[in-house]
Amino acid sequence: MQQQDNDTSDQPRGVSELPTGLATVTAWLKRGAHLDPDAPAVQDGTRCLTHSEFDALSDRVADDLRLQGVRPGDRVGLCIDRSVALIAGLVGILKCGAAYVPLDPTYPRDRLEVMLHDAALSLTLVGRDHHGWVAATGATTRVWDEIGAALDNEMAPTDDVLAGAGAIDPESAAFIVFTSGSTGRPKGVEMPHRAIANLLEWQLARRSFRPAARVLQYSSISFDVSLQDIASTLASGGHLFMVPDDQRRDARQLLHQLDDLRIQRL
Prior knowledge:
It is a single chain. By secondary structure, the chain is α/β, with parallel strands linked by helices. The chain contains 11 helices and 10 strands. 39% of the residues lie in helices and 15% in strands. The strands form 3 sheets. Strands 2-1-10-9 form a 4-stranded mixed β-sheet. α1 crosses α2. The chain is globular and about 45 Å long. The N terminus is likely disordered.
């Protein structure tokens, strides 16, 4: 009779089950995109993309950013409402070798303006509803709707642009998040690819981690754990759900969403 494994402790699955040498967030994301390309990857209230569709969209966002002059090592602001577009923008910034600087639209305007000023952004990827105030700060912007139009026109990047699509340095910054500023002016903190890649390898190896899970992306994009939510889900072939802020902040609505969407991790 076969012995049943009843060990439910949170011990590693074994590194043999995971690839080795993945030292960047983008390498883990690419791994996840190929696990089950036709499985759902990212969904909001109006749109659901499979892993292959999302991988292609974020690739083309990266190409568009390169066309705008973004180069590896640059910092790109991200100010888009919670949606498929937000996640595609975030991953597209990573794929072009830049660091994303999250600008949660629900944050106080004066705090966001401090962050915009201090981050020395080369470009800010912004939703149409937020373009006015971001542009008023003097920031260079790229509106998501304009990227969508370029994608609809089957934009083809030039050879010069593709030349900037080389390997990403694991020591380069993946994102910059700002402290709360409770003890003074908010300060930006850089997080390199290698540190997040190490965290992903550890998380995906735990017995308590459920691959290909249905995950609600809950935390603010300006909170560092949000990338752990996003990347661990996509890297393991999971299904990431984005809900609007009004539903995320209302406990009763959130409970209904968890039930209706059959969420397995929050």
